Automatic annotation (TrEMBL), chains A, B:
CDD domains: HTH_LacI, PBP1_LacI_sugar_binding-like. Coiled coil: none annotated. This is LacI family transcriptional regulator. InterPro entries: Cro/C1-type_HTH, HTH_LacI, LacI/GalR-like_sensor, Lambda_DNA-bd_dom_sf, Peripla_BP_I. It comes from Protaetiibacter mangrovi. Residues 10-64 form the HTH lacI-type domain. Residues 11-54 form the HTH cro/C1-type domain. The keyword Transcription applies. Pfam families: LacI, Peripla_BP_3. Keywords: DNA-binding, Transcription, Transcription regulation. It comes from the Bacteria.
Amino acid sequence: MTPEQQGSAPTLEQVAKAAGVSRSTVSRVINDSPKVTPEALAAVRQAIEELGYVPNRAARILASRRTQSIALVIPENTARFFADPYFATVVQGIAMYLSDTDYTLSLLIAAEKDGEKTRRYLQAGNVDGALILSHHSDDRSYTQLARSIPVVFGGRPMSQEGSEAYYIDVDNVEAARNVTRRLIENGRRRIATIAGPADMSAGLDRLEGWRQALDAAGIPTHLVEHGDFSPAGGEAAMRRLLERGEEIDGVFAASSLMAQGALNVLRSHGRSVPHDLGLVTFDNDYAAQSSSPPLTTIEQPTVEQGRRMVDVLLHLIDGGTVSQITMMPTRVIERGSE
Amino acid sequence: MTPEQQGSAPTLEQVAKAAGVSRSTVSRVINDSPKVTPEALAAVRQAIEELGYVPNRAARILASRRTQSIALVIPENTARFFADPYFATVVQGIAMYLSDTDYTLSLLIAAEKDGEKTRRYLQAGNVDGALILSHHSDDRSYTQLARSIPVVFGGRPMSQEGSEAYYIDVDNVEAARNVTRRLIENGRRRIATIAGPADMSAGLDRLEGWRQALDAAGIPTHLVEHGDFSPAGGEAAMRRLLERGEEIDGVFAASSLMAQGALNVLRSHGRSVPHDLGLVTFDNDYAAQSSSPPLTTIEQPTVEQGRRMVDVLLHLIDGGTVSQITMMPTRVIERGSE
DNA sequence: TTGAAAGCGCTAACAG
DNA sequence: CTGTTAGCGCTTTCAA
């Protein structure tokens, strides 16, 4: 045990001394520079090993001007965010992919009141890039942020500047149209939708898909109630739909969580699916798979979406060229609930 | 618009110049030092405001040897982790509390293969402290880590060294005993349990609580099957329980997610709750509230648990004295499913 | 109370 | 391929 091993962490300088080389050489080894002789390399590696040396992150960042860390910005309502299997799995994709790299993930909660604080932090060069998830129409500040640092969105951003944004998404319009069509093919003619928030692109697009499917079949499209993608929101929307007193024989709920809420309300009203009315939804999570009845739904590659977000961001950080829009495939999962 | 505003972020030096003071004084203002005259303070504040100055994190860390960031270590299986409302809400508590402080949250995925990598990162002084969640019996390395930096566990750690660990928990034994007792009070006499993993304290403790309740009533305790706290795990366990061919009139599922899986299996076997058998569980999440039937369960303050974890950790970092064990209250929520 | 000066541990030209 | 030399932007004694 060398004396240096005591106390605090060993420095690069100590490694250099132990290996009998200069600090630069140690630095080169750490950074995988090819310009190091095998002997020097071996000596340094051994010294590093023996001393249990780990580079000081802050010093590296300061000297190199690269933070090797990226931010994951999520909305203030962390509760609902993580409670949604969709976001949970996207985050999983992000985290897993990142753990294979040297990048570190910083979780940033965007307080609605002062998004200012968040934006400043990001602009101050504390991260190499940012991932924005579940943004509403007030995502303007983030699309602008993209001028300072690389930014990748999960889902198409709403604001105008979004036309220059990089994002990963699925074709929500097409997917919603496809799954709604199942209801129609099954003879449903009075079809409602529990739409997502009107200030989120996924909400709007799925609503549009539903509308397109109905229009194509000459079915009226006035049976719309919005929810917030949560079970409670789905319950409330379904209740409002029933209170309208109109006949309804089919419902497209824009998220599996909302479908669960709707299912509960229907059940308590003694209306059975798919006997009395058809119910289809979006997201192939556990709830959709095992509710009774299991729900016909849209499957989207959520984990993969997270992976791709990171992928695009890292390319951007490296100054590479990537396509602005990455569309992931979806497919209808038939379960007979329509 | 001053020329400095162009290009990259302003530095402390620029603020000093603009305010007509030295860098030291600016630094003092940033760090809330009391030794600054009101005039100097005002001048600096204004300069900071005008320039939109944000301190460079890396430089601060390097100079002060405090990282102002803490790590949240979660298990490799990020998918299941976030899919569980329990963890999701604990993380919420952590994130929300932290966003009120100057600390930054780093998400660390503990690869099971080389937890070595994770541990080194933590020991290299990259964070001021760590929060460990959902650890199995192999949490030895983390309890040892506590010798190098402050560490707080969510849930009692399993390993021996755990006796010196700081942790936030609920009395799982008592809670499980209480909810199981409802089954007994309702006349159930052949009571099974879908227990959690045998390498997690929450799994073992809840099993023990179930056992105590049964022992007290003179009911045999051989009807045990383990799950992994997930819906799929609950399904499999319930299936194994039924395959035993023994009569069962009550089940305590150690997590709400497992209860949902069990409910699905029971339903497909034509056995109704609570008519044919009683079912009680743990966690008062949406699933437990709105499954059919809604489930009698244990409510625990999850968000608050996250908050307290951070609270204890920050106290530890500040060198303060905190009690090692923080127990949070639980209560039984009656819903008639027993 | 304030400023000057000396680093924190590392990277990045540059010359050799 | 290697070592020397300057900093990166901030904190922190120490004098003044």
